UniProtKB/TrEMBL annotation:
SUPFAM superfamilies: 4Fe-4S ferredoxins, cAMP-binding domain-like, FAD/NAD(P)-binding domain. Pfam families: cNMP_binding, Fer4_11, Pyr_redox_3. One of its GO terms (molecular function) is metal ion binding. Signal peptide: none annotated. The lineage of its organism: Bacteria, Pseudomonadati, Pseudomonadota, Alphaproteobacteria, Sphingomonadales. Residues 380-486, 501-620 form the Cyclic nucleotide-binding domain. This is Cyclic nucleotide-binding domain-containing protein. Keywords: 4Fe-4S, Electron transport, Iron, Iron-sulfur, Metal-binding, Transport. Residues 658-690, 727-755, 793-826 form the 4Fe-4S ferredoxin-type domain. InterPro entries: 4Fe4S_Fe-S-bd, 4Fe4S_Fe_S_CS, cNMP-bd_CS, cNMP-bd_dom, cNMP-bd_dom_sf, FAD/NAD-bd_sf, RmlC-like_jellyroll, RnfB_subfamily. SMART domains: cNMP (SM00100). It comes from Alterirhizorhabdus solaris. PANTHER family: DIMETHYLSULFOXIDE REDUCTASE CHAIN B, OXIDOREDUCTASE. It comes from the Bacteria.
Length: 839
């Protein structure tokens, strides 16, 4: 006869062992089932010597077990001792393979075929046993692993860690900590942001990088694995590096099949065998067990505020419920047992923090009511469970705005995202009119995606409730909740198309086109359109840039450059002819792929848009005709221009919005550009004329390119880096001198330096010889005239395009020969410039 308990707890991670400790303390009949031969397998699988954090620090710990930040081994030892002292009923090597029955009479079947009966079940099995796999060619090879037990086991190896969440960072740091091991460690992050990891881990990673102990490769993903090597897709194209071992820490997902079967009604199911024969077996009836919030692999079970699943009597806690932090998990284990024991008045441990978040709201509601209200009324939050909503609101703010009140002004810095929970807001347009954004939608996504200053003034069109989501919280939300990412992508795509196409279009006009939209990541050099192909899809450059090439005499000739915000491919839709040119990514980019058929129906219905598309097409046709006409008589110049254009793209112009170029045929080496730059910026020059590379007569000096998506912004702790109204990327006075921007810039255009003492004026130097003269003072003069006893901190120094200085960039104004020019790539990189002899 099966053993019977009031509560069966499956999984002895932090949540499960805390639940068992509470059941023991209350004297409840219980059993803790663990499939391994030890408790707390979640922590046990951490790498040896790992420092475990106790975050969030403001959250109180309710568990009957102690937990403080410390070494993995100490925490495991403490829990083993306290579990034994508390009298927890444990069964090790007890893997649960099935859960059937109903509340009050559940049957848990174990791997050894024995059974256990329980009135209630707490599932705390976590997700780490079901890791996301490396799905690239060679990803199955034996040197690819998904767990790191002891970093000290590996010596003299080239090791690649994939994934820059907490686990990946800790693995990489652990492998690189001891120099005696002589490991060459590299960690990859698919994006430029480290939104999934704790701040302390990110800082520790960069400290190791700065010490030369490991390499961090952002915006990089694996492409192919082979014995001894791995091929990577980097922001600059493919790279093949030596690799003896890959540790893939790319997250994990719930063992969905097992979870959905728990408590499900068992019915006869028809199963098709590999040989095509059909058979009948017993299986769970779909939808009758534990229900997930969506079909996405990363989705979590639907739960009540008391952690109860769709199956009465089965409670889900811990990482399986979407709460990966240990302190959260332990509190949930305590609370779940209290709920089962009838304590319906118990409030979550984060209740006081969230009450404070909502205390100034115009209506009196409980925390649960507020969370439910926000989840029901804000589309981006619709996929979050009540438990996820609680964690989300710990990092977000909600505020009431009166009608007419300004949310933010045009050109203000800001990268947070706003969601409209009630009311609406109005976007002020230059013509004095406004666009209404309704309840449920979002705004501020441009600052979130690109880091640009606010593009318009936003005011409350009526009394409204808005949720402000910090950039970090928004990126984390999009990374962890697929439905939220889809909402942001859909809305940002719709608004980009409306802005780009214009012609009086409405969101409803674009519905079919936006429904067809697919956001694609394109590696550097990869073609999205190939010459002579017959497809008709349209491509919008969302991030990065593209180059257009045409084959002339068997060689690719550079035609033009397409920055973010451009679109291409309409010619095939309008004239039905094969593709006339190849379009490839200049750098790692994102494009929005739109159905050509849907676009055809749109332009057929909208004559103004059709006229605009024909005008754009005519420009491209003229360019093609120009190249064809010049291919014989002008071939040498065309080849020279194409070579120069490719050189500029290879040197970072492909992601620039504004770049300084110097015509070596005109430059006389007077250095007036550097001196003027220094005199305009507290005595510190932002450019190095002699540095950089040259092709033919064009020189690219070391000066900021003001990238469309600046690498320097990726990890700025005080958010001191912003984009100005004219596209300039600048650093404000909140800079703390950490140097992250300098390290992240791939072009070496940021320096860390102290602001020198103020120099005497130019007239004083001319008449009396006072001061060091024009330009940046030498170190000897700066040291001699520094304030005694005052040690000035270093700060990040970079070109700001002379923002706020009348007349524009000083480097250009000071050039006596016109050799220095600042240009946007799209104006410079087009073969049509040859008509004027500009190449």
């Amino acid at each position: 006869m099966a053993d019977a308990y009031r509560i069966a707890i499956v999984g002895s991670g932090p949540a499960g062992v805390s639940a068992a400790a509470r059941a023991a303390q209350l004297g409840l009949s219980h059993v803790l089932l663990e499939k391994t031969d030890h408790l707390s397998d979640t922590i046990y699988k951490y790498q040896k010597g790992k420092h475990v954090m106790a975050t969030p620090s403001q959250l109180v710990l309710r568990s009957d077990l102690d937990f403080d930040a410390g070494k993995r081994e100490k925490i495991l030892g403490t829990w083993d001792e306290q579990a034994a002292a508390a009298g927890i009923s444990v069964r090790l090597n007890a893997e649960v393979t099935a859960i059937t029955g109903v509340q009050g009479d559940f049957i848990l079947t174990l791997a050894d075929k024995s059974q256990i009966r329980a009135e209630n079940i707490i599932l705390s099995i976590g997700t780490q046993g079901n890791p996301n796999l490396l799905r690239v060619p060679g990803g199955h090879l034996p040197h690819v692993q998904y767990q790191l037990d002891d970093p000290g086991e590996y010596v003299d190896e080239h090791i690649l860690v994939i994934g820059a969440g907490d686990a990946g960072i800790e693995n990489a740091v652990g492998l690189a900590t001891d120099p005696a091991q002589r490991n060459v460690v590299t960690i990859l992050n698919r994006t430029a942001d480290f939104s999934r990891a704790k701040d302390a881990n990110v800082k520790g990673l960069f400290a190791m990088r700065d010490a030369g102990r490991l390499t961090v490769m952002p915006e990089t993903a694996p492409n192919k694995v082979e014995p001894g090597y791995v091929t990577l897709d980097t922001r600059d194209g493919e790279a093949r590096i030596r690799c003896d071992r890959i540790i893939a820490r790319m997250g994990s997902a719930a063992p969905r099949g097992f979870v959905e079967s728990c408590g499900a009604e068992m019915v006869d199911l028809e199963v098709k065998g590999r040989d095509g024969t059909m058979s009948i077996r017993k299986g769970p009836k779909p939808g009758t067990g534990i229900v997930f919030s969506s079909p996405d692999r990363e989705a979590y079970p639907k739960l009540s505020p008391q952690f109860e699943s769709a199956v009465p009597g089965i409670y889900v806690i811990g990482a399986l419920a979407g709460y990966p932090l240990i302190k959260h998990c332990m509190n949930q284990g305590y609370d779940a047992v209290e709920f089962i024991n009838g304590n319906t008045e118990l409030k979550p441990a984060d209740e006081p923090i969230l009450e404070n978040r909502f205390k100034n709201m115009p209506r009196r509601r409980s925390v649960d009511d507020w969370l439910g209200f926000l989840g029901d009324n804000v589309e981006i939050l619709g996929g979050l469970s009540p438990l996820q909503m609680r964690e989300f609101m710990l990092d977000s703010d909600v505020r009431a705005y009166r009608i007419g009140e300004t949310v933010f002004e045009k050109d203000e810095p800001g990268s947070s995202l706003f969601a409209i929970a009630s009311g609406s807001v109005e976007v002020s347009l230059p013509n004095g009119k406004g666009i209404r954004i309704p309840r449920g939608s979002i705004f501020g996504e441009v600052g979130l995606i690109s880091g640009r200053r606010r593009g318009a003034t936003i005011r409350a069109a009526e009394d409204s409730l808005l949720v402000e989501i910090s950039r970090t919280a928004a990126l984390k939300l999009m990374a962890q909740v697929p439905s939220a990412k889809r909402v942001v992508n859909r809305i940002s795509t719709e608004r980009q198309l409306l802005q780009m196409f214009g012609s009086g279009l409405t969101p409803e006009d674009l519905r079919e086109v936006t429904d067809s939209a697919e956001i694609m990541t394109v590696r550097a050099g990869q073609a999205v359109i190939k010459e002579n192909d017959t497809d008709t899809d349209i491509y919008v450059v969302r991030v990065g840039s593209m180059v257009v090439e045409k084959s002339i005499g068997g060689k690719p000739v550079f035609l033009s450059y397409l920055p973010a915000g451009s679109y291409v491919g309409e010619m095939a839709v309008i004239d039905g002819a094969p593709r006339s040119a190849t379009v490839r990514a200049a750098i790692k980019s994102e494009v929005i792929k739109l159905s050509g058929e849907a676009f055809r129906r749109l332009i057929d219905a909208k004559p103004d848009l059709f006229d605009k598309a024909k005008k754009d097409m005519a420009g491209r046709q003229d360019l093609n005709a120009f190249v064809e006409a010049k291919k014989d008589s002008f071939s040498t110049v065309v080849d020279m221009y194409s070579s120069i254009a490719n050189f500029l793209v290879d040197n970072g112009i492909g992601e620039a919005t504004d770049v300084l170029l110097i015509d070596e045929n005109l430059c006389v080496g007077c250095d007036n550009c550097e001196k003027a730059c220094a005199d305009s910026h507290e005595g510190l020059s932002r450019l190095d004329r002699e540095a950089g590379r040259t092709y033919a007569h064009l020189h690219v000096p070391t000066s900021c390119r003001h990238c469309e998506h600046p690498h320097c912004m990726a990890d700025c702790p005080p958010n001191a880096i912003h984009r100005g109204p004219d596209g300039e990327v600048f650093i404000d006075d909140s800079c703390i001198g950490c140097g992250n921007c300098q390290r992240n810039c791939p072009y070496g255009v940021i320096r860390m330096d102290k602001v020198p003492p103020k120099k005497p004026g130019l007239l004083s130097w001319l008449l009396f010889g006072a001061g060091p003269g024009p330009g940046e003072p030498d170190k000897k003069w700066s040291y001699k005239h520094a304030d005694p006893g005052v040690e000035k901190p270093k700060k990040a120094i970079k070109c700001d395009m002379c923002s706020g200085i009348e007349g524009g960039p000083a480097c250009v104004r000071a050039c006596p020969t016109g050799a220095a020019i600042r240009v946007s790539p799209e104006r410079f990189l087009t073969v049509s410039k040859l008509e004027k002899g500009d190449a």
